[in-house]
Amino acid sequence: MKKLISIILAVLISVSAFAVMPLTAGAYYERNVMRENENFKYVYNIEDKDIQIYEYIGKNPEVNIPDKIDGSPVTAITRLAFEGCDFVTKITIPDTVKNVGDEAFCDTALYKDEKNWDNGVLYIGNVLVEAGDSLEGEYTVKKGTSVIALYAFAGCENLTKITIPGTVKYISESMFLGCKSLESAVLEEGVEDIDENAFKKCSKLENIKLPKSIKRVGMDAFKGTEFYNNIYNWENGALYCNNILIEVDPECDGIFTVKDGTTVLGDYAFMECNAEKIILPNGIKTLPYALVQNCLWLKTIQFGDDLEEIGSYSVADVQNVVLPDSVKKIDYRAFFQSRISEITLPENLKVIDVEAFLSCSHLKEITIPRNVEKIGHEALGYRMSGIGAEGYLTEKDEGLVIKGYPGTVAEAYAKEHGFEFVDITERPITGCTVEGVKNTTYSGKNITFDFTVKDGDKVLAPETDYEALYENNADAGEAALVITGKGIYTGQIRKTFKIAKADNPITVKTAKKTVKLAKLKKKAQTVKALKVSKAKGKVTYKLTGVPKSLGKLVKINSKGVVTISKWAKAQKGTYKIKVKITAKGNKNYKLKSIARTVTIKVK
Known about the structure:
By secondary structure, this protein is mainly β.
């Protein structure tokens, strides 16, 4: 029965792997290298720098699996790694191993010897390799166990309760598949990871105790259980277990708020959800794998202040993202095919993992903070281009501009991949020059200039690199243009200029006037021969030339009216009187004088 289940699972895994290959195949071939030594064939992971043993090729019946190969830790033993090794009677597994595949040791003499099985369960050191189909009732995994092999309890149809100690960090995929009698599962404090389908279709499983140490719950981990199917366990369209949000009903729309106290989100928790906005509380440190897969209406996620890691594919469907300052890592393909056009990366960010922004075709510019220590393979500026012999192919997405600091990984990545790099090191704007500002004359309007600010040969852009503000630029006197740096430019430039007073626009028109001799002999005569307009400031009049014959008989008043006193001895003739008209001016106009001649004809 166990063998049959294992074969079925292997087929399901291959189908599943094929289904997600567009998302993973390329990365596998880029991140892993096949190697071998005299005893093992193994895979070296370039990114994680660890070893997975997938075949034993040695001849020794007592196998001591090393904790390191070529200086890298051995962390996994894959499925059927000891296939055909019927001569192997003893195996030692190091504490560095965190994962063991199903049937990894099934062909060995150690596996086939019933004396090595403890009440139907096979342990090798701290690894629980497999539980036999005959296991029934309640079972408690031995204390000190650190690893339970893949599908170890699959097919245990009579198992009713399982207790797993906290020394086991990882509950693997489909571990309890086919456990149709399982009613209760107790995971003690220390267990951290429950993989996808771990308890799927354990139809009687109702009592589930999960510790606060849980950091991840995989897709469909509890689907098909009594706990999952009981509608009373769902709260406002969401299934919670203690501090864990396991899944949200796809029919939830509008704004969905995850309840306070939630610290863990399940993988695919919002899969195909109709929500337009998701609000997450403080306390969530990691966005899980594919959090919002196929959420076609989703526009934004409001993150809490404790978020540190953006998981793979977790924000692929989001249109707008504002990351909190707490984020330190962006995982593999976190933004895969995202619709974002701009993003500000937080200053505390340390890692941008492999293909983190793959196929983000709308993203044309990205600023990398100074603290980023690692940018993974093709993390920025690449897109999927097709399928090759070794997986999915990528190609460079031309036009991406990377902004960052000289000497950082951002500059190194840009140069290595041929992207434009823009230095965003802060510069004092006082080192820049301002052209086009000069002394000028009052115009009646606010004085402005068509000026440019230059940093060497670079012309700075208004609004992006600086803001400009004029001071006292309306009236004559000293004015200033104040340029305040923005973006990478700091400080201010104060460029002063003078606004001179304008010429006084005073105009004076004269007219010839006639005075009758008979009247002049009897009484004084007034003459309005001057018309002044547009004068700025007080206007004054002064006689500068009077014919001798008139002598002191001529006067002019403050309005420019000429008066000839009674002149008993008046004679006919034409008399020319010279007048100086002065406009005193004001704060914006100069003083100005105009000389005019008033012509008076006596007849």
